[in-house]
Amino acid sequence: MGSFISAVTLTVPDYDQAIDFYVGVLGFDLLEDTKLSDTKRWVKIAPKGAQTALVIAQAEGASQIAAVGNQNGGRVSFFLQTDDFISRYETMRNADVTFTEEPRRESYGHVVVFSDPFGNLWDLIQPI
Question: Which of 71, 45, 43, 72 is nearest to 58 (CA)?
Answer without folding.
Answer: 43
